Description:
This protein is mostly helical and 210 residues long. It contains eight helices and three strands. Helix 2 (33-47) packs antiparallel against helix 3, helix 2 (33-47) packs antiparallel against helix 6 and helix 5 runs antiparallel to helix 6 (146-189).
Amino acid sequence: MTNYIANSKNRKLKKQILLFLERLNFGAGKLPFSGRVILFMNIILFLSIFFPWFHFSHRNNQLDKIYAFSEYTGYIGYGLLLVIIAVPFFLVSHEKKERIRAHIPFRLSDTQAVVFVTSLLLTSLIHLLLISRTFHQFVLDIDIGSGFIMAITSCIMIIASAFFLSKNSKEEGMDIRYFHHKEKDHFEEYRDILRGPSDKDDDSNMTLPI
């Protein structure tokens, strides 16, 4: 009985994961190139967790590898995970995103929200880089690891790609408004033909005799 319950939970979890990946793939397929770059750099940001952020060299020739979830990095990995979840949520989600926006007093566009959360993480990374000099009182030498380089590069690329995504969204919005206006003008030209002579007589009878 216990095995049946465990297998049932595993099947439900697997189904939810597959459903999430399917929705993510569907939403990513509708994004322009800049939006796909954001999602790709978000994956690189996630991979940075598994690479060392700093290398500490001690006087006894001991070498320590410092990762994102370390007290030396201020456990910045947790904030990094929040950004990793938030970025695809703003770009791909629709219904749940609108439900959350209904309870927020201010409104940000998708790209503005992506830039906001990523800028917070980038600011934290720069601050971590600046205070890393104080670690010299504990260790002999400090080297920046590949994980930190991947994280800060991903943040910069996400912010830059969000700028082009916002520009592309504005151009699409202008095109939609333009075609809507042209379509309205097109029907105005043929309004009299579509309405017929009887409608014209009705309009003429409704005018005031002044």
